[in-house]
């Protein structure tokens, strides 16, 4: 197949897949599964995404947190030596604390565990994405956050609804392998 046809083929495949992911008639659980399927299978052979292929996948079992998720992996490590974590929530040892401060501590401790398993640490984080459910909780979350992230990596914070109404904070990271 000529290069232009191959590009068009994968572009159509990508558009169809994204249309499916963002179909408003599907529930959020389906979207979570779909996003995993996109990364793991549908576009894995695409030349458009070939430079982004991950060389190592870490499951939650690999990092010692088997209760964390049965849908997503804990992290992937790129060819370029970057660790991309999945979003982590405040559940630790099967318990979800009520306060945003305690949830933030658990989230960051979970992420520290993931980064250690990937050969990295909080000192090597280059980008953080924080999701909180209540803008009034920002100061509380930020107070805990500041104790862990001394290097002050780039960060974005989004106020949104999370999958479980009891969750108050979710964080995902990008870090360099040390």
From TrEMBL:
GO terms for molecular function: deaminase activity. It comes from Pichia kudriavzevii. It comes from the Eukaryota. Pfam families: Ribonuc_L-PSP. Belongs to the RutC family. PANTHER family: 2-IMINOBUTANOATE/2-IMINOPROPANOATE DEAMINASE RIDA, PROTEIN HMF1-RELATED. InterPro entries: RutC-like_sf, YjgF/YER057c/UK114. One of its GO terms (cellular component) is mitochondrion. This is Uncharacterized protein.
């Amino acid at each position: 197949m000529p290069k232009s046809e191959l590009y068009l083929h994968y572009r159509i495949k990508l558009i169809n897949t994204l249309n499916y992911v963002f179909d408003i008639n599907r529930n959020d659980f389906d979207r979570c599964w779909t996003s995993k399927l996109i990364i793991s299978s549908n576009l894995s052979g695409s030349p458009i995404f070939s430079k982004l292929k991950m060389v190592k996948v870490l499951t939650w079992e690999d990092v010692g947190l088997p209760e964390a998720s049965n849908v997503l992996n804990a992290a992937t490590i790129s060819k370029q030596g970057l660790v991309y974590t999945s979003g982590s929530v405040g559940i630790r040892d099967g318990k979800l604390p009520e306060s945003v401060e305690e949830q933030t501590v658990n989230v960051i401790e979970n992420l520290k565990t993931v980064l250690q398993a990937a050969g990295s640490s909080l000192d090597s984080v280059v980008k953080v994405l924080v999701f909180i459910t209540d803008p009034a909780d920002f100061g509380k979350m930020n107070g805990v956050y500041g104790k862990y992230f001394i290097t002050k990596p780039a960060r974005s914070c989004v106020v949104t609804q999370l999958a479980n109404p009891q969750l108050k904070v979710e964080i995902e990271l990008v870090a360099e392998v040390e």
